[in-house]
Write a structure and sequence with these properties.
- By secondary structure, this protein is mainly beta.
- The chain has one domain.
- It contains 1 helix and 6 strands; from the N terminus they run αββββββ.
- The strands form 2 sheets. The chain has a 4-stranded antiparallel sheet, with no helix packed on it.
- A hairpin with a 5-residue loop joins strand 4 and strand 5.
């Protein structure tokens, strides 16, 4: 009770209560990330393998793999098909074409067709390479 700040309006009190940070203006952000930074945005071939620990990407702790840094795979949609599940054909930073399959409960139907356009970019946080049988 002694830590409750006094004199806050209701929005500031809610931010304090839930420990929300106020949104920063663009001028307050020191540096934007370079989209060509291959450490943050690796090519498909540089992604870690789904079935193993990959130094620099993840580590094993108590039998669970967890990331040691952030990365995101960016791919440009060059084609797509919707048969029994959604499959996108993407071009990575090296212009290598790779498939992206959606093995979700909805088999990719969570994305409405209006959202899928050739030339648009897909971002996959903590992407890993995986080979399906």
């Amino acid at each position: 009770m002694n830590e409750v700040p006094q004199g806050l309006d209701s929005n500031d009190f809610e931010d304090w209560l839930w420990r929300r940070e106020k949104p920063r203006r663009l001028e307050q952000i020191r540096q934007l990330t370079n989209l060509r930074d291959r450490e943050v945005f690796p090519s498909f071939d540089a992604l870690p393998n789904k079935n193993s620990v990959s130094p620099g990407f993840n580590e094993e702790h108590d039998g669970t793999r967890r990331p040691v840094r952030h990365w995101c795979f960016l791919g440009e949609i060059v084609d797509f098909t919707i048969l029994h599940h959604l499959e996108l054909k993407l071009a990575d930073i090296d212009n290598k074409e790779v498939p992206l399959h959606f093995y979700t409960h909805g088999r990719g139907s969570e994305m409405v067709p209006e959202q899928i356009h050739k030339g648009h970019t897909i971002a996959v946080l903590y992407a890993e390479r995986h080979v399906f049988a």
